[in-house]
């Protein structure tokens, strides 16, 4: 198997490399690409040193079995189709293709069957969406969801290394707000991305549209408030769910415990507890004023499960169901 990673020196790109080990991905060739700023860097992996290559118009004319993109929407829009034309399968971590009907938006545990016989671009969902829909999918199968209300508490690594450096610099007294609309140190910002005409910011719109597409419930009543918080890694979410019938909480917990991708904690997890985890962590499941509604707490590593791990799981599932 020949694999390439575009954006290999970024937060998610580096984690993609690590997740190749987490999910036991064997390959014959691994090629790492980045921009002019990072080209030439050396990365050690599996007892070998890889020199990061400069991404150019000719780089992806070579056919790879899989190319993982994590370099932003503009890079994906410029290079992904060329890679597909060369015969490669592209797994893209940006928002560039998520809303295109003909391109699958995949969380393998939910809709991985869409990968059967598929060639082309595969979209990797938004980080805050992935950890949540893993829970919603199970709950919906048990009780049928009527309404979902989410408030997120999203770490600065969701903005890449620039988000991390902005927070750390502000902790040291720098007043430069960086890419954020306000100071993030010792603060919370109820805005991630630009606002639309209806008062929703970009991240909130992503969560709504992507959840509907992944779950294949296009009329799902879902609303989100997304908040940036001064945490380095891991996103947290408070989720209210109204169901069409009364809920037995222990039944939901039992179904969570039967998976290998959800971890239930009878107390609770914080971001600092799950930084090395590829799982969606859930706790504090309780009734929300009636027996047909619940509220829960959900935490996950946004760079791992919310990006790199899900992308590598897509690669692994696509290979397994199509290798014959």
Can you lay out the helices and strands and say which pair or pack?
Elements: E1 2-6, H1 11-22, E2 29-34, E3 42-45, E4 48-51, E5 53-54, E6 66-69, H2 73-85, E7 89-92, H3 108-111, E8 121-123, H4 127-143, E9 145-154, H5 161-171, H6 202-215, E10 221-228, E11 235-243, H7 249-257, E12 262-265, E13 280-287, E14 293-300, H8 304-322
Parallel strand pairs: 1-2, 1-6, 2-5, 6-7, 7-8, 9-10, 12-13
Antiparallel strand pairs: 3-4, 9-11, 11-14, 13-14
Distance between the termini: 14 Å
Mean pLDDT: 97
Order of the strands making up the biggest sheet: 5-2-1-6-7-8
Instruction: Enumerate how many helices there are, as a single number.
Output: 8
Helix content: 25-40%
CATH topology of the largest domain: Dihydrodipicolinate Reductase, domain 2
Q: CATH-wise, what's the superfamily of the largest domain?
A: Dihydrodipicolinate Reductase, domain 2
**Broad shape:** globular
Largest sheet, in brief, is: 6 strands, parallel
Tell me what portion of residues adopts beta-strand conformation: 15-25%
Count of individual domains: 2
Structural class: alpha/beta
Q: What's the CATH architecture of the largest domain? A: 2-Layer Sandwich
CATH class assignment of the largest domain: Alpha Beta
> What is the radius of gyration?
20 Å
Give the topology string: H per helix, E per strand.
EHEEEEEHEHEHEHHEEHEEEH
- Give the number of DSSP strands: 14
- Which consecutive residue ranges, at least 5 long each, have pLDDT under 50? none
């Amino acid at each position: 198997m020949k694999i390439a990673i575009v954006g290999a020196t970024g937060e998610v790109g580096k984690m993609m490399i690590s997740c190749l080990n987490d999910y036991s991905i064997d390959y014959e060739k691994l090629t790492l690409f980045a921009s002019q700023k990072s080209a030439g860097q050396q990365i050690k992996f599996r007892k070998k040193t890889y020199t990061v290559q400069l991404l150019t118009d000719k780089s992806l004319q070579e056919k790879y079995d899989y190319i993982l993109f994590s370099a932003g929407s503009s890079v994906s829009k410029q290079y992904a189709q060329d890679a597909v034309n060369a015969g490669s399968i592209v797994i893209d971590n940006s928002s560039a293709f998520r809303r295109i009907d003909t391109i699958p938006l995949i969380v393998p545990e939910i809709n991985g069957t869409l990968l059967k016989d598929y060639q082309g671009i595969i979209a990797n969902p938004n980080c805050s969406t992935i950890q949540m829909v893993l829970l919603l999918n199970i709950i919906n199968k048990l009780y049928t969801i009527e309404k979902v209300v989410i408030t997120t508490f999203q770490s600065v690594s969701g903005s890449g290394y620039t988000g991390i450096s902005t927070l750390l610099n502000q902790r040291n007294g720098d007043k430069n707000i960086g890419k954020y609309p306000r100071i993030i140190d010792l603060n919370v910002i109820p805005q991630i991305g630009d606002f639309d005409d209806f008062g929703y910011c970009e991240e909130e719109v992503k969560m709504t549209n992507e959840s509907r597409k992944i779950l294949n419930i296009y009329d799902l009543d879902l609303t989100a408030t997304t908040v940036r918080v001064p945490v380095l890694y891991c996103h947290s979410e408070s989720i209210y769910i109204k169901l069409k019938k009364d809920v037995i909480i222990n039944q939901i917990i039992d179904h969570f415990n039967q998976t290998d991708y959800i971890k239930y904690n009878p107390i609770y997890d914080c971001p600092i507890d799950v930084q090395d985890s590829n799982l969606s962590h859930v706790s504090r499941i309780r009734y929300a004023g009636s027996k047909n509604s619940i509220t829960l707490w959900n935490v996950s590593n946004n760079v791992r499960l919310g990006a790199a791990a899900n992308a590598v799981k897509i690669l692994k599932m696509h290979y397994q169901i199509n290798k014959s």
